[in-house]
Amino acid sequence: MNNEEALNAIEIILIYELSQLRENKRTWAEKDGDLEYPNLNILLATYNFLNQSSKDSIIANFESRIKNSTEGIFNNHGIETTDKEHSYEPNRYYASEIPLLFQFLCFVKSNEFAINSISNIHPFTTTFLLTQYLIYLIDNNLFKFNIIETNKLLKTLDKDFTLTSKEWCNIFKQKATNLMTKQITSIVGKYNIEINQDKLLLLDIVQKNNFDRTLSEFISQLNENSIFESSYTLSGLISNFRNFWETFIIAVAEKISDKTLIPIDTSEKTKIANSRLYIKRELKLSDNDHALISRFVDILHSEGGHAFTSTKEYFRLTKNIGIEILLLIISKFDAKINGV
């Protein structure tokens, strides 16, 4: 198929899509957990025959068609009606290019690009079929939009204030928010709430005392780092946490020295060892506190520095223990320096 044939074939596919919908034949389905959309598949395959210039033109053309598209509303006798206020009734069906063009742009460009395209629809009374399509995706576990994209879809589809579109939008809103809340619960459930609160307290004290910004940025991202699944990545994260730990301890010792004008010990071979001894003395850490910190350092070195891989659970535990120890140190630091 040459370029000209492909361009003409795309027009034929879009005409065929509309003709099927006008006959009340749904053009998409769920099959074995995947979206079955024959017209979309042939459209994507035909698009691949185009040269780059024609591909760019098709994308621009599809954006324009979405923005200016019309939507036919038919009764159960196949007669088109202009009565949009009662088009929510079950004996009405819709015909529009928008679902096909929207899903095409999701695949070829991105979800965000496709959502931006439908946000430009005017007048915004041609989204009944698109809303039904999105509801179908949710009902059949085919909805592939993340939290941010879903929220943008909700805001986009809530633009039209006709009675009918509001009812369809409310159905989509209920189903989409229910699905996203389950995902949010799953994500949040990965983190221990108490640990997360302690992390925020740690971050607050670090920022209040004007520690280097890189330290607060690392602390802020600790929960985000927890989502990595690769054992190789997790091993690297533990190694990064060890480097952060050493930087943090040295920074605390230097802050104390700056405030008290008491010099840091130099009896040990390394800067981190001298900083730890200095902190133990100046913050009056108990022998048990010091022993706990030493054991934690051993864990950081054995699992992060020498082990080739590390499990997700091990990183989570290492991170959580590290947060609690750092909070203990920074709280004692805050009490000494600021009298709190």
Characteristic key phrases:
68% helix, 340 residues, 5 strands, single chain, elongated, mainly alpha, two-stranded antiparallel ribbon
Strand content: under 5%
Helix content: 55-70%
- For the secondary structure, the number of strands is 5
SSE sequence, one letter per element: HEEHHEEEHHHHHHHHHHHH
Largest sheet, in brief, is:
3 strands, antiparallel
| Separation of the first and last Cα atoms | 76 Å
Low-confidence stretches: 224-229, 303-309
Structural class: mainly alpha
Compute the gyration radius: what is it? 30 Å
The side-by-side strand order for the widest beta sheet comes to 4-3-5
Number of helices: 15
- Outline: elongated
Mean pLDDT: 82
Task: Give a written overview of the molecule.
The protein has 340 residues and is mainly alpha-helical. Helix content is 68%, strand content 4%. The protein has 15 helices and 5 strands. Strands 4-3-5 form a 3-stranded antiparallel sheet, covered by helices on one side. The chain has a two-stranded antiparallel ribbon with strand order 1-2. β1 and β2 form a beta hairpin. The N and C termini lie far apart (76 Å). The relative contact order is 0.07. About 4% of the residues have low confidence.
Lay out the secondary structure.
Elements lengths: L2 H20 L6 E3 L2 E3 L1 H10 L4 H17 L3 E3 L5 E2 L11 E3 L2 H11 L2 H8 L9 H12 L7 H11 L5 H26 L4 H16 L4 H8 L1 H4 L5 H30 L10 H12 L4 H20 L5 H27 L2
